[in-house]
Amino acid sequence: MKILIVEDSPRLRRSLVEGLSRLGLTVDASGEGPEGLCLARSTDYDVIVLDIMLPGMDGLTLLKRFREKKTNTRILILSAMDQVPDRVKGLNLGADDYLVKPFAFDELHARILSLYRRAHGQSSDRIKNGKLTVDTALKQAFFDEQPLPLTPYEYSILEKLSSSRGRVVTYAQLEDYLYSSTKFVSRNALEAHVSSLRKKLKQVHLNHILETRRGFGYLIQ
Amino acid sequence: MKYSIQRTILSGAGIGTAVILIVAGFLAYSLFGGLLRHNFDDALLVKARLLMTLTEEGELDDGTWGIEFEFAEEFMPEFSGGESPEYFQLRYHDGLTHEYSDTLNKSDLPFLALTEPKISFSDLMLPNGKQGRLVHIGFVPQIPEQEERSPERLANQKSMIITLARERETLENNLTNIRRSITGFSIFTLMFIILLFWRVVRTGLSPLSEIRQQIDGIDANDLSRRVGLTNPPSELEGMQSQFNQLMARLEEAFLHEQQFSADVAHELRTPIAELKSATEVALKWPKDFDLAHRTLIEAQDISDQMTKLVEYLFALARCETDKIVVNLESIDLVALVDHLTRVFGQQAANKNLTVKKIQPPGALVSSDSTHLEMILANLISNAITHSPTGSEIQIVISMDQNTFKISFSNEAPALLDSDLPLMFNRLWQKDRSRTPSDHSGLGLSLVKAFAELLGLTTNATLSEQKSLTIELGNLKKSTAAD
């Protein structure tokens, strides 16, 4: 899962990036409104965590301008403004959730996961595909209820492909999903992770579940 | 019942008019009634006197002296009967009847022993059962001119009493009509005046009703509405404008208060959120000592920041409740400024700022050194923080008669004239995002509060070249007593 945090407090931004990254999320972060809007428009994030009072451009303006172009990304407003009119305004402008500061880190994480599930039409943390199950909360894949020994990258590839089951996920989308905007990773590295994942799936007799559409990307049937 | 101007005016006018009408009615009734009674009595008296002239004392047919009553019924048929009979009775002074009208039918009228020239009126019940009025006249019968008027005869003349009575039904009817007319007129006039007053008062008070309706429409959550009368009377013009000015001040204060609450909430919620998030993340991976160490350092920074904020707020609160003691002493202003520019020298150097000081020697002022140092430190720190890198800060001390003033000027390219009235407000920041920094927006509020405590003036101006000057004035020159 790839998320963007737009928060002007460096300390809060740092701890959120640290914590959410350690929980297996791919996290980009920005401390300013215009930069946050630029990142949000240029990358396909699953969830954006957005502060309201931002330098350069306030969060509500960012949200409004972002929603003019994109509607599928889930947005969670994280703000110290706790009045009902503030929440109503944020939600009416297109936010999917509103969390008031101070908040519990676990609650934020749970809400991000919930938004992710809603974005992908899931009702639970578990994506099932025959005997293969991907638990997005535990960041663990299972075959016939037995855990598969996947690396974080392999798991993330499987999670992205499973959540987009039946649709081709392009190389660029997968790269965006796996890596934050500050990291540059070669196509070879991505292919190596996919190859490794495919081998591990073959070991449990899932030989053809992961297909390569040459020139486009990958697909899980 | 609730006090009401309309009801007060109406009840006052009603009661006043009613009293006037009652008094006027009473007087009118007394006047007209009295006049009617008087005329009635006059007519009765004239008739009685006529009867009196018919009475003579002369020689009778038998040659003796006696009373002759020359009464002819045909000329006064009312004494014989009819629809409005009248009654008379001529009596000697001892009550013995000499003559009476047929209408009395041998009964007597009341008797009053009067001597000449007494006249007496009274009411009575007539023999026919109706109410009547009678007059008694005591008189001495006249002696015909041709008869002898010897002193002896004159001395022995006896007085007579003529009593005349007639119905007073007409009089009573007239009086009743007068009473009814006056009462009816009074009630009509009272109703008319009340109605007239009601219309006038209602029309006169309609602007007040309009104001009340407009004020009723003002919501506590929307103080932007103002009172505007369609046709304001001169008496209410001042009140309307003063009310609107009050509303404007109230709205401004309310917005400031709202902004202050929101700013306080933000200033407190953000560091708490930072602390909570950092510690929860660290506790999730308790064996990561590097993360724990970084979190502890951040927690310390956050607690320092919050401590500073709380201390500022407490200082402001103490200042606003006059709980701060002021100790006046002689302070060398130049030395104090030099000391502070040294303290903040590194900060200025980090931004490559030039601090230019224009200060006359011997600027000794009388003030509280701790509070004045705090004020000046805030102003210098503020100038350094908000100056663009590489610019110049000017500190100028000047003297004006017995006071000194000190000003701090720095470039402020983003500042607007409209920001000047707000910059001394608590927690005001030019950057509305309130991005966390070392400045919470309380510095200038403290400067203003402590300046007022020390009797100093504060003023902020912005030049066309976007140079902000904050001036601290009215610094009293130190005297030997200090």
Q: How is this structure best described in words?
A:
The complex is a heterodimer of chains A (221) and B (482). With 221 residues, chain A is an alpha/beta fold. Chain A has two domains: 2-119, Rossmann fold, CATH 3.40.50; 126-220, Winged helix-like DNA-binding domain superfamily/Winged helix DNA-binding domain (Arc Repressor Mutant, subunit A, Orthogonal Bundle). Chain A has eight helices and twelve strands. Chain A has helices at residues 10-22, 33-42, 59-69, 84-92, 105-119, 152-163, 171-178, 187-203, and strands at 2-6, 26-30, 47-50, 74-79, 97-100, 126-129, 132-135, 140-143, 146-147, 169-170, 210-213, 217-220. In chain A, the strands form three sheets. In chain A, strands 2-1-3-4-5 form a five-stranded parallel β-sheet, sandwiched between helices. A four-stranded antiparallel β-sheet of chain A has the order 6-7-8-9, covered by helices on one side. A three-stranded antiparallel β-sheet of chain A has the order 10-12-11. Chain A is elongated and about 55 Å long. Chain A starts with a strand and ends with a strand. Chain B contains nine helices and 14 strands. Chain B has 482 residues and is an alpha+beta fold. In chain B, strand 13 and strand 14 (467-476) form a beta hairpin. Helix content of chain B is 48%, strand content 19%. In chain B, the strands form four sheets. A five-stranded antiparallel β-sheet of chain B has the order 4-3-7-6-5, covered by helices on one side. Chain B has a five-stranded mixed β-sheet with strand order 9-11-12-14-13, covered by helices on one side. Chain B folds into three domains: 5-175, Beta-Lactamase, CATH 3.30.450; 234-320, Signal transduction histidine kinase, dimerisation/phosphotransfer (DHp) domain (Helix Hairpins, Orthogonal Bundle), CATH 1.10.287.130; 329-476, Histidine kinase-like ATPase, C-terminal domain (Heat Shock Protein 90, 2-Layer Sandwich). In chain B, helix 1 (5-53) runs antiparallel to helix 3 (169-216) and helix 6 (333-343) crosses helix 8. The A-B interface holds A 8-12, 14-16, 18-19, 22, 31, 33, 53-56, 58, 80-82, 100-106, 108 and B 262, 265-266, 269-270, 272-278, 280-281, 284-285, 291, 295, 298, 301-302, 431-436.
